[in-house]
Fold these 3 entries.
Entry 1:
Amino acid sequence: MQNFVFSNSTKIIFGKNTEKQVGVETAQWGKKVLLHYGGGHIVRSGLKDTVIHALKEAGIELIELGGVKPNPRLSLVNEGIKLCREHQVDFILAVGGGSVIDSAKAIGIGVPYDGDVWDFYSGKAKVEKTLPVGVILTLPASGSESSDSSVITKEEGWLKRGCGGPAMRPKFAILNPELTFSIPPYQTACGIADMMAHVMERYFTNVHDVGFTDQLCEATLRSIIHYAPIVIEEPENYNARANIMWAGTVAHNDLLHTGRIGDWASHNIEHELSGIYDVAHGAGLAIIFPAWMKYVYHHDVDRFVQFAVRVWGVEQDYYYPERTALEGIRRLQEFFRQIGLPTTLKEAGIPDDRLEEMAAKCTADDTQLQGSFVQLSQSDVLEIYKLAR
Amino acid sequence: MQNFVFSNSTKIIFGKNTEKQVGVETAQWGKKVLLHYGGGHIVRSGLKDTVIHALKEAGIELIELGGVKPNPRLSLVNEGIKLCREHQVDFILAVGGGSVIDSAKAIGIGVPYDGDVWDFYSGKAKVEKTLPVGVILTLPASGSESSDSSVITKEEGWLKRGCGGPAMRPKFAILNPELTFSIPPYQTACGIADMMAHVMERYFTNVHDVGFTDQLCEATLRSIIHYAPIVIEEPENYNARANIMWAGTVAHNDLLHTGRIGDWASHNIEHELSGIYDVAHGAGLAIIFPAWMKYVYHHDVDRFVQFAVRVWGVEQDYYYPERTALEGIRRLQEFFRQIGLPTTLKEAGIPDDRLEEMAAKCTADDTQLQGSFVQLSQSDVLEIYKLAR
């Protein structure tokens, strides 16, 4: 087991009607708030009114900035930074899913920074200071509500890049499963693929004898797999939505990572897809992850056997372990298909004429290898895109 | 699923040589430290010298108070409070196991409190303020290193009582599995029983459809069960010690509790045992828990079947579920025996002539029922003691 530091300080406020506590929680951190959100959904659902009411009752002034899109854009982040500076905002409240939260985090680190906020995403600057950020989560997927990172897309060149640091962890996150009842099945499924990817990226590691976190990862995956078809079929099943929502947070709050070295290649390989084609990140992962697995499973068949047996309940073939390993991958792909996700580029309507370009961008023309479980060069990444066709 | 707030702010610093970071971590909280510990073990092992050196290097003054015993005593807590006030101590560093940490927490809340510190334990006062506490853990068991509670024994009447509150959570906890290599097998096993009890007390709940935390509980138990015989047989197996140590912390950091209502009857029934007989708390739990299970399993056979199948790998009898449930309880008891623990009062050399007295104390003469999974009266508790003979 590797040495680690684990400190997840985000206060999780979970359950029915918890969004009404947002005024009290926010008042502990700021007096003038940027209310950051996406489209009209939170208006139509009445959530925005509830939030504004709670903030005003707590004596908080607010400035609004809506319009966050999936794969949140740098231009809006810059607009937010300007707005916060103009109005001397001291707290950012993100109401939405991962895109809104990531955008809020980017604004948060941009405000006290003299240079271009993209410096953090291009690796030129290190996150040290931020405006505090709070969250009301409406879409369980990214885990951003208690993670210390953010992913932003720069329109110029459609570069999708991430950055992180302990300061970026939200101060509180309010999670009411009822707010997720209205998420359409496809978006629900995309969220499920995203959270499963977060677990699997920790699971496939070269660090051995980390049985406890192996078990926690498998437990989280099995829970998601159990409740996923229920939330697709019965979108207003509170307990199923609640289990999925909490699993999505735990999947990415660093607990499952303790003592291990993860492999984020699949996320990065997918980022090139959703950066260019604006496909939902979760759908992209449902396409890329099985392809990545087929390409790398030879590296550690035992681990893929364990994955197949413990996560998917595959009957183990003790003499031909590869059969078991491949059956696990097949079950994952079948599961994604069952919940309504594309599992190939073709099914997602993505052409295969820019695979070389994506592989080159992903590996920065082969100067930057991807992954740690297996280190991937530009040509490896290209093969994975080809397997995903 | 129940509404919940989850906020575990203790910074965990885990791994080899991490005790050397104690100066830097402590300096963030205080300048004058009470170094609180138990017996000569940390002197003989050289840990005390390492800690003092690290603290002095960070410019920290220190006062010492050793002598904490298992089932830590109120009299020493009062001595610590006096010492802290006299020397204007601003931070308490606990170096040891759960008893030392619980004693440090008690001193921490006692210092800024005008009345008798026992008020917190007798329910007369509520914890609001404390001196900050840090931990170097040497015995994985109690989970006190990141929990928000403490259990103290008052010598007068040998009352063993707990109290808690968010303020009591340690600021940091340093966990180096190497420091646990020298724990003798019996004490190791007692720690294992304690951490398993913490999980099982959360597992047996009347809240249904909490599948995610069910899975996390089962994963934690299976991990402990897997690594327990290894740490008993190979006390210097780093990875096995590390998995056990981290599982012991997670077992009691509130994650496994989220959305559920736990049942702490077994802990309280055991407290009367170890309060009177000074038996190790973990050994007491190995005696009481199977007896409690035999007494209550009728209340929810399905849950005990799930426990048997998922935790112990019992082959399910679909027609006679009680057989499966009872086999799970038998396996638990057998496991405790296998790692060298007593599983009856007789095996622990405890006579059965004060069972009525313990049952009465535990339920405060039947005005106070124990448990929530099944609510237990004085006569129920007496039956459990009898089953444990």
Entry 2:
Amino acid sequence: MIRIAIIGLGLIGTSLGISLRSADSKKDPMGNIEVIGFDRSTDHAKEARVRLAIDKIAANLAEALKGTHLIVLAVPARTIPSVMQEIAPLLEPGAVVTDVTSTKTDVMQWAAQYLPNNTFIGGHPMAGREQSGPKAAAHDLFKDAIYCLCMSANTPPEAVALCEAVVERIGAKSYFIDPVEHDAYVAGISHLPFVMASSIVNATTGASSWREMAALAATGYRDTTRLASGDVTMHCDISLTNAAAITRWIDASIDQLQHLKTALAAGDEAAVTDFFARAQNARNEWLKQKPGMRPGEAEYEDLGVGMVEKPSFFGRRPGKR
Amino acid sequence: MIRIAIIGLGLIGTSLGISLRSADSKKDPMGNIEVIGFDRSTDHAKEARVRLAIDKIAANLAEALKGTHLIVLAVPARTIPSVMQEIAPLLEPGAVVTDVTSTKTDVMQWAAQYLPNNTFIGGHPMAGREQSGPKAAAHDLFKDAIYCLCMSANTPPEAVALCEAVVERIGAKSYFIDPVEHDAYVAGISHLPFVMASSIVNATTGASSWREMAALAATGYRDTTRLASGDVTMHCDISLTNAAAITRWIDASIDQLQHLKTALAAGDEAAVTDFFARAQNARNEWLKQKPGMRPGEAEYEDLGVGMVEKPSFFGRRPGKR
């Protein structure tokens, strides 16, 4: 039986527990599992237990790690270093550690520093909600989601296999990616959106006319700013750990806004039309992609199932297995 | 029987027709109505008829306006001047003209220029979808939506009453507003969001790494950029007719982005936290407001129904009735 510890029982940690435990152990290759949970907040731990995300609550990290094969760090990004230092002496031989945070470069460096003799595989499920905490957890949060995995050239194959099995069990799809590339990409498609959403809210709600404006704001405003309601600590942690990449995307967006301003000032209808037409076309092309398809996977599927053998993995895996 | 002509059978025109015709004529104060539709596109007109948005299709503007009490211009903003010039000689005495476009200052000026005295009331239902065309029309698009109305000091009371009755019949809520204020407000809560959404899409999809990024983009990206899929002509028309107000909100948003960039460059955790905390608080406060409440209306409702008499109108109405 595989024993998994989830450290941190917020939205992601609790959803992960629910997904792992609600999978059919008879059909899943992992078979029977035991999920033990730990959170510094007793309320979070109790809520996770009530929601059946965990088999039991650990009183402390030592209890959580005793006899545990896989440790999932589901804590805010900037608390990862201190948690790694705390767990390092408690890890069983051969135990694998992973995380679920949105940035990977810093996390991989921290792991090399604080868990030098242990196996760390960086993880990032491309799924979330603007609500946070265990109450917002959902059993299908990871369904068909791409789950990024970052490893090094000498990561043991059995550790990779364990993480892949977890990803499969929760209905997500493993995608191997270099941590620097990961951070640059998610800065654009995941971090820039919450930065822009928060900027819209701060710009509009800070205006003296906001009270009158507020009544007129409807579904367009609601959806475009949805991410601004996300967890403040998470947004702050992500922004500070991925500042350079996010700043590049902010600059690219400001360039777009300046370009539109220039076109509006000139009354340049062709340029204004081009601005909105490019965005409409590009977004609609993106929407046509099948959800949860890793780069290269859609092309494989288009060839027809059974016509060619599906690759054993997607993305870039350093070293050999 | 009131005869209403809808000129332009896209998303809004068709939804308006469906809402008007599906209301219970026995219960609605307007009683029986006849809706006649006109669109330069025969396909649009036929689709609107198939969807029961109109009683019949007019072959031309003259036929649409003959014996008609209310003409709704549901055409793109920048085609309004030419349509006004075409319909001016065809209007029956006492006929009222209104529109549904997102900007009101230009439209009110065009009406003053091209239409006979006092027959025009500007309208703007605060509702929409990113899809366009009659196929995207919905019977409940205007349910509980605030419907802005702009009039001049000499607008006849019976013309105002007719527009108010239409708004009530489709389940929306009349809100009287000055056209310049209207344009400044909607530039922030309605136009800025589609500008920002399009900027995100152009910045990200224009990157050389977009192919890899695209696969990782998930619900956050989808929702934040939803408005970028909106109608290009509408976005272009709105931007050009409301350029000054939109530019002010773009500048305010760039200020927010620059502020965050500075905080990130300095590693200023307090400033970064404050940025996201302000946005989260402000958006959550906004979400707490009851939907479709006009400024002042929620306070009235909080006093308890029946305790005080509900005002006969909300917003600012110039002149007297």
Entry 3:
Amino acid sequence: MKIKVINPNTTPEMTKDIYTSAHCFSRPDTEILCVNPERGPVTIEGFYDEYMAIPGLIEELLKTEKEAKVDAYVVACFGDPGLYALRELTEKPVIGIAESAMMLATFVAGKFSIVTIMPRIRMMLEELIQRVGVGHRLASIRTPNLTVLDFMRDFEGCKKILIQEAKDTIEKDYAEAIILGCAGMAGFATEVQKEVNVPVFDAVASAVKIAEALVDMGVKTSKVLSYKFPEKKEFKGMPSLLQP
Amino acid sequence: MKIKVINPNTTPEMTKDIYTSAHCFSRPDTEILCVNPERGPVTIEGFYDEYMAIPGLIEELLKTEKEAKVDAYVVACFGDPGLYALRELTEKPVIGIAESAMMLATFVAGKFSIVTIMPRIRMMLEELIQRVGVGHRLASIRTPNLTVLDFMRDFEGCKKILIQEAKDTIEKDYAEAIILGCAGMAGFATEVQKEVNVPVFDAVASAVKIAEALVDMGVKTSKVLSYKFPEKKEFKGMPSLLQP
Amino acid sequence: MKIKVINPNTTPEMTKDIYTSAHCFSRPDTEILCVNPERGPVTIEGFYDEYMAIPGLIEELLKTEKEAKVDAYVVACFGDPGLYALRELTEKPVIGIAESAMMLATFVAGKFSIVTIMPRIRMMLEELIQRVGVGHRLASIRTPNLTVLDFMRDFEGCKKILIQEAKDTIEKDYAEAIILGCAGMAGFATEVQKEVNVPVFDAVASAVKIAEALVDMGVKTSKVLSYKFPEKKEFKGMPSLLQP
Amino acid sequence: MKIKVINPNTTPEMTKDIYTSAHCFSRPDTEILCVNPERGPVTIEGFYDEYMAIPGLIEELLKTEKEAKVDAYVVACFGDPGLYALRELTEKPVIGIAESAMMLATFVAGKFSIVTIMPRIRMMLEELIQRVGVGHRLASIRTPNLTVLDFMRDFEGCKKILIQEAKDTIEKDYAEAIILGCAGMAGFATEVQKEVNVPVFDAVASAVKIAEALVDMGVKTSKVLSYKFPEKKEFKGMPSLLQP
Amino acid sequence: MKIKVINPNTTPEMTKDIYTSAHCFSRPDTEILCVNPERGPVTIEGFYDEYMAIPGLIEELLKTEKEAKVDAYVVACFGDPGLYALRELTEKPVIGIAESAMMLATFVAGKFSIVTIMPRIRMMLEELIQRVGVGHRLASIRTPNLTVLDFMRDFEGCKKILIQEAKDTIEKDYAEAIILGCAGMAGFATEVQKEVNVPVFDAVASAVKIAEALVDMGVKTSKVLSYKFPEKKEFKGMPSLLQP
Amino acid sequence: MKIKVINPNTTPEMTKDIYTSAHCFSRPDTEILCVNPERGPVTIEGFYDEYMAIPGLIEELLKTEKEAKVDAYVVACFGDPGLYALRELTEKPVIGIAESAMMLATFVAGKFSIVTIMPRIRMMLEELIQRVGVGHRLASIRTPNLTVLDFMRDFEGCKKILIQEAKDTIEKDYAEAIILGCAGMAGFATEVQKEVNVPVFDAVASAVKIAEALVDMGVKTSKVLSYKFPEKKEFKGMPSLLQP
């Protein structure tokens, strides 16, 4: 099967790390295509960034719908941006990395903590957790004030910080699992896992596994109500690439 | 004071009706600027439409931030699209019409019903209601399968349908107030109000009144956490107009 | 328009401060009538006080319904006492200061904190927050153990304490807005606002603005179900003034 | 032990029925005192009635606190009026009939329905159910549009209606227990029970049993925070009987 | 009346203490039968222990159903194990000690804390609290890392720890009542009560009082849906004693 | 990898169907072991049945832990019986079929309905849905009054009923996906899928896919708190096979 993983920001180094993570945890017969749009923010660290990334994300999905044959899509940003819109545009499963990691964590742990980037995204994550429905399983959100690009620039420094936050949340917040809450942390799960005695979830890997599961089961996105194809209409002044 | 009302779709007839509604309910010393972006979908009837409208919406706000002097913004689409992003981009209050109407309804009625357009937006509204926090005050969501443009094309026909739905929900769902859940319904509230004995809320008017209230109080959007100005960063391949 | 603000306790100095706050934030063409009942507790600092204040409050409203012409009522106590009963007695909007401040705060901040008086009212506020529906937006309730009359007696001392609590809750509880949770704090918002970088809400002002909004929109209290006029019946041994 | 049951309305016939119900289900060594205030509404059928009944209710409790020796209080109105205020005024348990019936029903049934009086009290009951916490156990609220005095005037007619509603809710709403939601229905439980195959709860009886339980256990109302004795203060123009 | 209290573990010393507690708080004309199964874990300190105790518990109930005449059952373990299954097997009320203590606490206190054994049962209690519906009344769960058998072995040591935890939770968590959250703590409530100024609930006593209440009221377990008698079927390789 | 699927009832024909379903949707390199205990109820249709099945289920797991080498366990009953206890007994993931199907459904549909067996299990499913956290995504629970063995006895008859219920819930309840809520329905998903235009979830298949996902990711059950290995202790009169 083919899964297209879209990094919605425009930082190719990060796309590469996401590819490694996705590929590393995928099944041998799964082909991972990993791309990022040509236009949009270099990182996503707030609501504005998120919405600015969505057109590029949609473009990437529509391009694939028209040209290539893939079986599912993964959106590789921990805010799960634009998910519902993408689901309208295709019958293939579209999977978010945050929703996937949170749901998988509940199968092996009572409560989980999310270790993520800067404090400003706390509200974005809290609303996401409510939408997913796992608020009763959340131990805490830890925001050690890292930026997304820090992970590209200082692997060792970030690793230390993530390990420290993970240890703290296990000890102080009754956390029983750790979710690394940023696609830029792809590759860190293995490192953090070595240092702590609870399961550590790579969110990109989580979404790839959910995508594989749904494709294997043959289920597609329901098109009868919430995720119907968009109504036909005119889009003024917009690149045709952005239109289904 | 000056309030800029942005219709996030690209249908000027609708912008005109929204202006009428906003102007009609505003205070004499409030100046209403009412615009729509040049690019984007002609109507918003789903998640894809919503996200496609947000760049134009942001452009309109940023243009104003740089050029004109306004005191608050109103986003005139009942899905409250892009609200959090806009709040990051300015210190001035940014108000959604759905959140405004729902909150104002709770001051004069036990339960309210939303009469809106087609069934596919039900999930969008349910998630919005949860975010606002008034789920316990909702009697029902009524979706008489109208499109946004129907309101432009057939005033009398739509009026009849809205009145019938309003009467039905009062009688069968214990509704004590009606919210007209689409910016395209601007102008219908007065008509429906004549036929039913419960308060009927025009959502655009509701948001204008909330905007006036906040401006009068001198409060601005909090910039310490969730709505901080966006992080400085590169946006590849994007019009400079879209960047704060 | 005319708004009658009723301070439900019997301390005229406080009524005066409430008037100043209401008047100061009202529109030029809004006339504020501000009164307190002749009978009832001098302050409201618990459930018993609250219920003992309600008959006087109802008397004040009914007196106005029979004699004067006003457009809306504001109940100026942060417990929002007797609101539902008052709504049964009139078609005019009846607005609570707590519900108003909490709702307005959500338009400009992710999470808000309430800085109020003594710890014993914590449960009263928690139940009120649930009724309003904004529990997911509450950062914390701060109870610095002040009494209502402290605000009349020691402006400077109280000001210092409120500023300190506001600063603490911003720093420690992720608060992004402050609500001053007592009608006795009318007048302090401006002072606290000078010292902190988040919006500070005067609750009396908030309710006046909501009242103005609803009157401008022409909506009235729904009389079809929850807030129908009281059933006709005998009230034994009660002053006729208390009967609708 | 002695339990004082206070009917908060001023209809002595109803007080008599409440006494019969309380006495009939109490233990042989429990003495039931059953009274109603001299002043207040003859029935409670809305928020205004409720608040107008509370001063008389408080008077009755305070009179007893000063004169007689009782072990617990029961407030015999299904809106549980003034409960928190009464708890502030005494160390003895103060028990509501609605909260008692709802909690006891959960021990013997998956879901329960409340059969009560007129539709207008629906919101009052919904808020009460949320405060008690048993919303997930509620099958439905049935409001056959009876007034409280109907139960005094037409026993047979009311009996038929209650039985019909009970049967309907078992069959259509998955109800597994019935709560008769009005103190005026004291005496009807036995009759309804004969006709339906699910447990039927008399609310007055439920509260008497909870009161007996708490007195036997020797627990008293906690006075450290929410239910502390009222703060000492002046109450202007109020009968001394109303002051603790 | 006769109440059978079943200690679901196999430690007779604990059964004795449970009996003392049940007997001590029961009415003079209530006969307490207190037993434990012959097979099963010596204590219940986790999910596995709980499920392993349920067959013995069911055996004890069925033995009684066939032989002796009792009026109600109490399950004396704070996890309320197997309650729903037992309710299917008999028409007599089956009462859990955790649900009883939590509900009774809400009648006399704003918020309560549970002082229990080891941290691992935290999730078990949190899910139980959600099922009962009193999450909004919980101040905290305190887990001082005691085992169930500690209470048999070191009364004085445990007493000190429980008193310390109770004092801490009153001071730091706004607790207004204490529930001793383990049947092994039967007998400690009186001791803790002497040292703290809030009501302390013995959970076994709480359940006995609820059982007495329901029996006095003549209500039985509803057999129309959730708690119908089990479907007739074959149970392979299981002792006939375990089959209804 | 090897996944052991345990049918917790003792009907080998059903075990065979479960095997077929598990095998059919598993990856080529996944080996499915499918067994049922030798003792326990022939079907699970209520709480008593559920608890009676758990010892056999535990025995099956412990036998495997001691003898064979598997990578994960699936419990194939839609009540997800004994899951938490099993998680205490092993480090390998233990997956329930109900939780798996509900979570996977949320990735491709706004709301899902569960079509299951008889009405009496409604409460069991409602509590399960709350524990999983997806109550806001539930359209309805449909209980066409089938028994588990009906699926073994009358394939065509059951198929018709399931298809009719699925069509009804799509049309009337806004369902966008169907979950077949009984392990006995293994094999029916494909048939129902042919007749309806929304995704249909086989619950056994769902759990196998989640198990594969977690094994591929290398995560194990967290052993630090809720799912620690059971405390060492004596189990009186119990087969050693049942002890870890």
